[in-house]
Design a protein that fits this description.
nine-stranded mixed β-sheet, binds ligand 9W4, Rossmann fold, 425 residues, eight-stranded mixed β-sheet, alpha/beta
């Protein structure tokens, strides 16, 4: 471990050059954040502001951190999941003078120790994924809240917990719900999860998707993304659902819909994306074809009932990284990927940088917005604050521009026509 109090604690500083190459690769795929860096490194609107951040230490997060830093902020960072920190990225950031406390495989004590180190700077802003940093301030260091003008939160779960806190009037400062930006959740869930889940399946199995029966459980945004991409690679997609409107959308999108009890007999590959438990259970394993592949991309690892699969099996062995072969008592084999955890994160690299570009541009713009309002002496209530529609459109517009696309503009007459209720048909 490399430790310099007040500066960093990371696994191994000598990994820095490997990490830097990965960060540079992400930079080349994150044009929105890089355009914002270019713009705000000139005016440095965050100068004099201290940001404590608690978010997965990945190559994409590094691009966000260095953009905040380039815009003038003093930054201190910790990871928000003990298993998601990439040590080479943490090393590259530490080497570049970013205050960071993060290493892969932290225990619970080390995890909170790291968060607490970032609070020693007495931050003016917090940036969270899962709200652990905000909770640490509220539960253990509430006196720090008086210096904090606001925070931002990345995920659905975090926003959900913060709304509950706000309803109970327990929130000490305003927090912007980055998750609820359309340029965040819609693109993350459909395009990010869609591609990275297929990526995880292929890395763990290297099977041909063309001609396979690919069963997607759940046709929410993630399920839709997986179905769309599997179909694009030539698989026959079958969707299972409990919600009539979602099932109807799946059929109109061209997919076959049926209950899991029927799909279980037909599927070659199964992916769960529902958010509920026990989607694939023992009666389904009993029906599956020999060689069936089963995985999950929903948030919880209980969508596939693994204890029941183990109980049905006489033998289990790892055949490839993130791929376990269960031999059932009648000799059939079922392959479980990434131990039923999120296959896109455990067996692949999560959302592609191009998708994180928009999520993190929302983080960056929200931090800028908090500082802007503070400078204008506008006080936000200590509640969960939404991203304005204009920020979503601005980020989408920059993304389009960096991709080389132009779009049309409404004329004054068109706007007038749209808003004129007297015009009739
Ligand atoms: N990563 C994660 C979490 C747990 C975990 C045992 C071996 C989420 C979003 C972003 O949660 C994240 N457990 C693992 S690997 C693993 C990875 N195990 C468990 O067996 C493996 C996580 C956001 N994100 C992207 O999606 C892309 N860049 C990003 O910053 C990152 C990580």
């Amino acid at each position: 471990m490399d430790f310099k109090p007040g500066k960093y604690k990371v696994k191994n500083l000598s990994l820095a050059s490997e990490g830097r190459k990965k960060i540079e690769w992400a930079e080349s795929r994150m044009p929105v954040l890089m355009a914002l860096r270019e713009k705000y490194s000139r005016t440095k609107p965050l100068k004099g502001y201290k940001i404590a951040g608690c978010l997965h230490v990945t190559k994409e997060t590094a691009v966000l951190i260095e953009t905040l830093h380039a815009a003038g902020a003093q930054v201190a960072w910790s990871g928000c999941n003990p298993l998601s920190t990439q040590d080479e990225i943490a090393a590259a950031l530490a080497k570049n003078g970013i205050e960071i406390y993060a290493w892969h495989g932290q225990n619970v004590k080390e995890f909170y120790w790291s968060i607490e180190q970032t609070l020693k700077m007495k931050p003016n802003l917090t940036l969270d994924d899962g709200a652990d940093l905000i909770f640490t301030v509220h539960n253990k260091y509430p006196h720090l809240a008086k210096n904090i003008i606001g925070g931002t939160e990345e995920t659905t779960t975090g926003v959900h917990r913060l709304r509950a806190m706000s309803a109970a009037k327990k929130l000490l400062y305003p927090v912007i719900a980055v998750n609820d930006a359309e340029t965040k959740w819609d693109f993350d869930n459909v395009y990010g999860t869609g591609q990275s889940s297929i990526d995880g399946i292929l890395r763990a199995t290297s099977v041909l998707l063309a001609g396979k029966n690919f069963v997607v459980a759940g046709y929410g945004h993630c399920g839709k993304g997986c179905a769309m991409r599997a179909s694009g690679m030539g698989a026959n997609v079958i969707v299972t659902e409990v919600k009539p409107t979602a099932a109807l959308k799946a059929t109109l999108d061209g997919f076959v819909v049926m209950p899991m009890d029927e799909a279980a007999k037909m599927g070659d590959i199964f992916i769960t994306a529902t958010g509920v438990k026990d989607v694939i259970v023992d009666r389904h394993f009993k029906l599956m074809k020999d060689g069936a592949i089963v995985c999950n991309t929903g948030h919880y690892d209980c969508e596939i009932n693994i204890p029941q699969l183990s109980k049905l099996s006489k033998k289990k062995r790892t055949v490839r990284p993130n791929n376990e072969e269960y031999t059932l008592k009648d000799g059939r084999k079922v392959y479980l990927l990434a131990q039923g955890r999120l296959v896109n994160l455990a067996a692949a690299e999560g959302h592609p940088s191009e998708v994180m570009d928009m999520s993190f541009a929302n983080q960056f713009m929200s931090q800028i917005r908090l500082v802007d309002l503070h400078k204008k002496e506008v006080t936000l209530p200590p509640q969960v604050i939404d991203i304005p529609e204009s920020q979503d459109q601005e980020i989408a517009q920059i993304k389009l521009k960096t991709m080389g696309y132009k779009i049309d503009k409404l004329s004054k007459e068109q706007i007038k026509y749209m808003n004129d209720y007297s015009a009739g048909t």
